[in-house]
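Give me C-alpha cells for this 517-residue protein.
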Amino acid sequence: MASKIPAAPSNVRITNVQSTQLDVNWDHTNDGIQVLTEYRVLYQTAGTTFTKDTANANTKSLTIKGLTANTDYSVTVIGWKNTEIFTDESNPPALVATFSKPTSVTLSPSSSSSIDVTWHAPVISGAGSATIAGYKISWTPPHNSGVKTVSGTATSDQITGLNGNTAYSVTVAAMSSASGAGALSDSKSAATGIAKPTALTTGDSTSSTIQVTWTKSPSAGDAVVITGYELAWTPATGGGSMMATTDGSTPTTISGLNSNTEYTIQVIATSGSGNGDASDAVTGTTVPLQASQPTNSSNPTINSITLQWTPVSGDSPSLKYNVKWNPSGSTGSSTSVVETSTTISGLNASTIYNFTVTAVNYGGRADPSDPAMFSTFPNQTNSPILSRPSTNRTTQINVEWNKPSGGDDIVDYVVDWWLSSSDGSITSSYVVPGVATTAYIIEGLTPGETYDVTVKARNSAGAGQPSPSAKHTTNPDPVKNFTVKQNSNEPDKILDLKWKTPNGTGDNITVTNNNAE
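Here you go.
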C-alpha cells in the first residue's frame, strides 16, 4: 500500500511575545502511515535566510529565544522525518514584531454598544528596525469577540457593535508596518451599559395623564441585573424635567401633568450599578380642559354671529377649537379655528342658534362647552305705507307694514319718525309690541308737515335694519273766522269772503258775479 503524506501544519499562532523571545503553537494531524520524527520552526527577518529551531514530533509548540527587539519576523512550521522534509510549509506564515506590550490599558463603557479604550505605547529599546505603525485591539467573550486595527500612533480608540449589558475582556498589541503584532497588553475587563428600551409609544391621554408602553431592555450578557425603569418627561416648550420609577410593567400611566401640554418622554433601565441608555424620545400631549361658554362679542347681523371665548390653559401647538352650531330641530354645522373668536356666516335671518366650543389637540377632545343661544337679526321690513285716513288727519298718520321673511322670533317693532325738513335725526319712536301687530297710528304731529317714517323689527338679538323711509304729510288745520258779505259798493255783484289761515294771519278774497242783474 502506498504511503499517505501528512498535510502541512496549520493555524500557526504566536503567543507570549517579548522583546527577545516568543512562543509558537500550531495544529497538525499526522494522518499518514509514516510517522514524523520532529518539527522544524523556521523564522526570518526581511531579506535574510531562515533560522531554524527543532521541536519534538509529539510537541506542537516551541519557544524561540535570542531574538532582536523591535524586529519583524515571519514564522513557518514544517514536519520532518529523520533528515527529510516530510510536509509542506505551514501557510500563510505567521507574522510577529518583537514589541513589548502596551501598558496602562483603561476601559470606559461609553454606551450599551461601545467601550472606549486608552493605553500607553510600549517602551521601544534595542537595535531592531521595526517601528510602530498601529495597534491591534482584541476583545472577547467568544459569542461577540472581535479584532480591529488602529493605524498610526494614536493610543485611544472605541470598540463598537458590542452587546449591551455584557462584560468584555480587552487586550492591545503594537503592530509594525509589516503587519506583525507584538506582545499583548495585560487583559482588562469592563461591561457595556444597559441597552436602551425600544418601541416607546404613547397611548390614551386625559387632561392630567398620558399612558405609555415600551419594550424592555434586552438582558443580553446580564453583566448587571436590571432592577426597574425610570420615566422622564419634559414640557416640549421648556421647563424642568420630571421623573418617576416603575418596575417596567406596561402600559403605565404618567400622572400629575398639566392640561393641553406637549411632553417629550423617555424611559431608561436602571440597575444597582447605574442606568442604561435612554430610549428614543417620543411626544405625548394631554387633553385640554373644557372651553368656556362662548359669548356674542359684537352685534350680530341678519346672517352672521361673532363669538368669543376664554382660551384654555396650556400651550400645546396642536390646540384647535371646534365650534358647532345648529338651529332648533336642524342638522348642526361646525368649523375649526386656532383663535379664540370667530364669525359664523351664512346663517338664517331672525333665527335662534345653539353654539358650543370644544378644545381639541393631538391628545384628544375635551368636553364641549356649555351651550350658548344667540339669534341673528331680523330681515328688513318693507317701507311703511299710509294705510287708511285718520279721524284726525291734521295731527295723525296711520302706517302699516308687512312682517319680514324668516321673522318667527320677532318680539316687537320699532316705529321711528322725524320731520323731513330736519337733519334726519330721529325725534320720536314707539315700540309696537307683538309680532302680529303690523300697524300703528302716529299721533301728536304738527298739521301741514311732512314726516319720514321707518320701521324695524326686533328679536332677542336686537333690532334689524330699519326699512327704507316713507314720507307722509299731515293735513293743515281748517281756516278760521270764515265770513261772506255783500260788497258795500256793489252788493248785487260782489261778495267779500274773509277768513284767518291756520297760523292766525288774516286773508281775504272778493268774488264778483258779472252775470248778476
